């Protein structure tokens, strides 16, 4: 696994600076800045519509920012093409799972292995010299991840036939297969039962501690966020309203106000 390297100038692996995103008249992100440091678990929280998914989509180049800059390990993300995101070391999962549902678990993880090494994929496709070596390395990596995520008993099963919680672990394996330095997790707890949730907290910590992957997650489940995060960034209406340790952010007056406002809205 690649080790996370810091940006020598700033001590951060990811640096988001003054990002602005507009959708027509909606200011989805209003000059948002924050850093993710190598080796940390950082959570992005905020009520519905706060801008969390928009920010994730900017980080994975699915959305264009109107202004601002995003630097990952020395790469300026806004000038990169989308397919290079995996190549430079950013992996992600999606709220709605980005899996090939008619393929097996192993085939999905192998697809992830090839997404970082585009040249290797082409070499394989055209059976160029070195293809067998690349394929063997991908298979070994897929095996390791299948074991790591306790998916061995499902490896040859078609993804569509598996329970949702298991599919979520397959998606994690797919995202890790590209050997990322930074893993973006989009609502990893969504749809999981109580038991699966407890396992998820341990798993995210293991991803950071054993695989040495830095983690940035968007999550609504405050129990999970507060128990695993080193740092929390809170957004509301597209603006950063707080940043700090879980304890600091939980007690922050603007965070309390934002969530109370949301609770009141839901109650009426
Ligand atoms: N593709 C889009 N087109 C138009 N408006 C959008 C688009 N994506 C997001 N928005 C708007 O931008 C704002 C931020 O939305 P976003 O989905 O980023 O919030 P969020 O914090 O992820 O919310 P949730 O927790 O509900 O997923 C919202 O007002 C939303 O309606």
Automatic annotation (TrEMBL):
Per its UniProt entry, which superkingdom is the organism in?
A: Bacteria
User: What are the record's GO terms for cellular component?
Assistant: plasma membrane
What stretches pass through the bilayer? Answer: none
> Could you list the residue ranges forming a coiled coil in this record?
none
On whether Nucleotide-binding is a keyword of this UniProt record, the answer is: yes
Q: Which SUPFAM superfamilies match?
A: P-loop containing nucleoside triphosphate hydrolases
What Gene Ontology molecular-function terms does this entry list? ATP binding; ATP hydrolysis activity
* Keyword vocabulary terms for this entry: ATP-binding, Cell membrane, Membrane, Nucleotide-binding, Transport
Name of this protein: ABC transporter related
Lineage of origin: Bacteria, Pseudomonadati, Pseudomonadota, Betaproteobacteria, Burkholderiales
């Amino acid at each position: 696994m690649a080790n996370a390297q810091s940006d020598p100038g700033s001590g951060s692996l990811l640096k988001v600076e003054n990002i602005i995103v507009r959708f027509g008249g909606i200011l989805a992100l209003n000059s948002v800045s924050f850093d993710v440091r190598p080796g940390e678990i950082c959570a992005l929280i905020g009520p519905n519509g706060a801008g969390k998914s928009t920010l994730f989509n900017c980080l994975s180049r699915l959305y264009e920012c109107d202004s601002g800059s995003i630097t990952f390990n020395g790469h300026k993300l806004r000038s990169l093409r989308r397919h290079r995101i995996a190549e430079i070391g950013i992996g992600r999962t999606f709220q709605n799972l980005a899996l090939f549902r008619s393929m097996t678990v192993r085939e999905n993880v192998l697809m992830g292995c090839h997404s970082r090494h585009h040249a290797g994929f082409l070499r394989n496709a055209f059976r160029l010299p070195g293809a067998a070596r690349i394929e063997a390395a991908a298979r070994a990596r897929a095996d390791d991840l299948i074991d790591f995520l306790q998916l061995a008993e499902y490896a040859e099963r078609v993804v569509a036939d598996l329970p949702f919680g298991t599919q979520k672990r397959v998606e994690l394996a797919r995202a890790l297969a590209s050997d990322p330095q930074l893993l973006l997790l989009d609502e990893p707890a969504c749809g999981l039962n109580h038991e699966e949730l407890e396992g998820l907290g341990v798993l995210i910590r293991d991803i950071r501690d054993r695989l040495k992957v830095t983690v940035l997650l968007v999550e609504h489940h405050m129990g999970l966020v507060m128990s695993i995060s080193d740092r929390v960034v809170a957004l509301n209406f597209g603006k950063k309203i707080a940043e700090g340790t879980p304890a600091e952010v939980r007690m922050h007056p603007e965070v309390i106000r934002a969530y109370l406002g949301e609770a009141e809205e839901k109650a009426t």
